[in-house]
Amino acid sequence: MNISYKIPQSILAVIYTKGLDVLLIERADRPGFWQSVTGSRDSLAEKLEQTAIREIFEETGITVVDTVTDSNPAKRQVARRYLTDWNIEHEFEIFSVWRHRFAPGVTTNTEHVFGLQVPTTFDVVLEPKEHLNAIWLPWKKAAQKCFSWTNKEAIERLPDHIIED
Questions:
Q1: Is there a contact between 161 and 93 (Cβ–Cβ < 8 Å)?
Q2: pTM (predicted TM-score)
Q3: Which phi and psi angles does 81 have, rounded to 5°?
Q4: 27-58 b/e (C-beta count within 10 Å ≥ 16 → b)
Q5: Residues 107, 93 contacting (CB under 8 angstroms)
Q6: pLDDT higher than 60, residue 1
Q7: C-alpha pair distances (Å), 90 with each of 82, 138, 150
């Protein structure tokens, strides 16, 4: 029997506009739990930026590309230069409800924070097995709505991460 466990290293990607609106998504396995994009590395070889790009696409349909070929927001393309590593790391205890996803004895996860600044709010494409709803909120309201303290803290730092063109 081949059991595959999650790697206890993950990303948190705050998706936001220059005007400080933040995208939150509601967890399917925990209705009422709102968060930014999160996800674990697929392998130890996967760089954290690659994890962020993959998870952003899987959870929202947003594609991070080197060059935007169509600036229509409905195409959900964002230039890679707008994805930034905030150089923030949190180590936290994995909630017991999700601990079975990790190898026996693993109780903590290290989360790396990224931000993705998008040009405007737009509809996203959710993976229905993972998320029920998406909402754009002003940053202070978004921070209040998050169930995770690390997510709340990251959003509270958002004004320091605006990319000026």
A1: no
A2: 0.94
A3: -65, -15
A4: beeeeeebbbbbbbbeeeeeebbebbbbbbbe
A5: yes
A6: no
A7: 22, 24, 7
- The whole-number pLDDT of residue 2 equals 62
Place of tokens 């690390």: 150
Confidence category of residue 148, pLDDT binned at 50, 70, 90 = very high
Domain boundaries, given as residue ranges, for the chain: 9-160
- Tell me which amino acid residue 88 is: I
Q: Judge residue 117's burial from the number of C-beta atoms within 10 Å of its C-beta, 0-12 exposed, 13-18 middle, 19 or more buried.
A: buried
Share the mean pLDDT of the chain.
Answer: 94
Digit-coded pLDDT (tens) for 55-109: 999 999 999 999 888 777 778 999 999 999 999 999 999 989 889 999 999 999 9
DSSP H stretches of helix in 42-148:
48-60, 139-145
C-beta of residue 21 within 8 angstroms of C-beta of residue 49:
no
CATH architecture of the region 9-160: Alpha-Beta Complex (3.90)
Structure tokens that stand for 114 in this block: 């990224």
Q: Is-contact 100 5, C-beta < 8 A?
A: no
